[in-house]
Amino acid sequence: MKSKLAALALGLAALTAQAAPTFSFKNVPVGWNGAFSIKLAGFESFSGNPFAAGTQNFGILKITSIQTIGYGTTTIWADGDNGAELTGVFGGITTDASSGGSFLRSTGGSAAFYLNAAGSYAAANGSAQGLSGYAAAGGGCVVNALCYNGISNVANGQLFLSADYVPGILGGLSPITVSGSLDATTPLSGVASGYLKVTGGSEYDRFNTNSLLGGLADLLAKNSFCTVDNGVCALLSDAGGAGPNGWQLAIDDPVKGLAKLPEPASLALVGAALMGVGIARRRKSA
């Protein structure tokens, strides 16, 4: 009997080790209205002159935590929770002809975020793969595509969110999706921002809230970046800043997404219901 129990325990342990990572919030403050901030870091590049029309901006990132806004700074998700990590790829952000001087104005653009087992990105050598990480991803893909080795091709991984940049950052009828500035001196540094509309992924229902830009967007991305060999910026980016090999810019904690999630109230109701079921079962067994 003991040997059977031991074998069963080993089998359950193996199944647990192979289980796909999951995502959920923790330490949710009572009364939280759903406003949150996404903390992340990574690397990016331009396909050519960043001020020339038609130049592509692309990169990769890793989310380090998600925190509440307005209810203290409570971390409701952190890298490694439930054996998971969140990493992303963005691209297709195309410099518009209206860019000039130090102004960066772009159209288009999209992003894809993946929920993978913790450590998957590091196991693939992370951003140190440089631009070759695109070709190494799942049969290979071109630079600037929404795929990257250790992000989009991880076993048991899943698309967490897909999103498109939408016009509106300049207001009115402007087609610009990303607006910012770039200091052309050395080292390079700059800022950019743009609205994102969630389009799919396993957490689509959680983050598709239509809470920004009059219902046209779900997230507001704010990006700050600097030359990859700038020690301060690179050190804080992507687990130690192991980023050159083709990357031009390091992203230091760039994106803060703001939205109102429909989850908190329903979570409380579900929790109360489950507690009631538990109490009823204990009473019945007694």
UniProtKB/TrEMBL annotation:
The keyword DNA-binding does not apply. Residues 262-283 form the Ice-binding protein C-terminal domain. It comes from Pelomonas baiyunensis. NCBIfam families: PEP_CTERM. Residues 1-19 form the signal peptide. The lineage of its organism: Bacteria, Pseudomonadati, Pseudomonadota, Betaproteobacteria, Burkholderiales. It holds the Pfam family PEP-CTERM. InterPro entries: Ice-binding_C. Keywords: Signal. This is PEP-CTERM sorting domain-containing protein. It comes from the Bacteria.
